[in-house]
Amino acid sequence: MFENKIAKYKFLNKIAEAYGTVIFGGSCDVNIPYGELKQAFSLKDSIYNRSFSGLSIADAARIYDECVAELCPDTVLLHIGDADISDFVGKESVFEENYRALIRTIREKNKGCRIVIVSFKNYDNDTTVAKINKLLGDIANSEKCEFEDISAKRAWNVNENAKTASFIFDIGFDSPLKIKRPIYNLVRVLFCYEG
Predict the structure, then answer these.
(1) R_g over Cα of the chain
(2) I need a labelling partner for 129 at 20 to 30 A (CA). Which of 11, 29, 181, 192 fits?
(3) d(CA 183, CA 23)
């Protein structure tokens, strides 16, 4: 099912720079205009989108191994599970075990990789999405990953964008820092640009 996309990403990996930031998500992430966002916010990081339409958490570890691990990412933004929402109730433990297996795979393949789990937007207060987001936060906490909550709708306006861009520049996206930078603003830029 994913073989054509895997082949495309493997080809792109040959020309990609290692140690960048990888968006590893599902259907809602495939078309993130990261190139335009990178340019609009003067982000200097290497950012690669390795998302798949219909990717379930059950397949995520295998797919990561096949087409993301070779990038040796410094940071992975995990936004996996939108394909699992309809089947989540009653299968919470399976979802959790598969998510933890994905984290183990990332750590085995890319030691020292910064793992950021990104919640799902929940602008309509859907109870299933709220349960998934709670579980993702618990997994992040117990696995010592970072968790970024984008579930609530926030205003996205020009003045805020200018402040965000300025802040991003000020914290070192233009030049490398010796410490790991906050990921909060990068997640907002990439996952909340639509409002």
Answers:
(1) 16
(2) 181
(3) 13
Return the amino acid letter for 160: E
Per the structure block, which two tokens stand in for 183?
């990921």
- Return the closest-CA partner of residue 102 out of 147, 131, 139: 139
Helical spans, DSSP H, in 14-154: 34-40, 57-67, 92-109, 127-142
Query: Who contacts 124 (Cβ-Cβ below 8 Å, separation ≥6)?
Result: none
AA letter at 192 = C
Percent with pLDDT over 70 in the chain: 84
Write out the two tokens for 9.
């990403």
DSSP lists the bridge partners of residue 47 as: 21
Closest CA to 113 of 149, 134, 143: 143
Q: Which amino acid is at 10?
A: K
User: Model's pTM, two decimal places?
Assistant: 0.85
Per-residue pLDDT tens over the stretch 57-94: 999 999 999 999 999 999 999 999 999 999 999 999 99
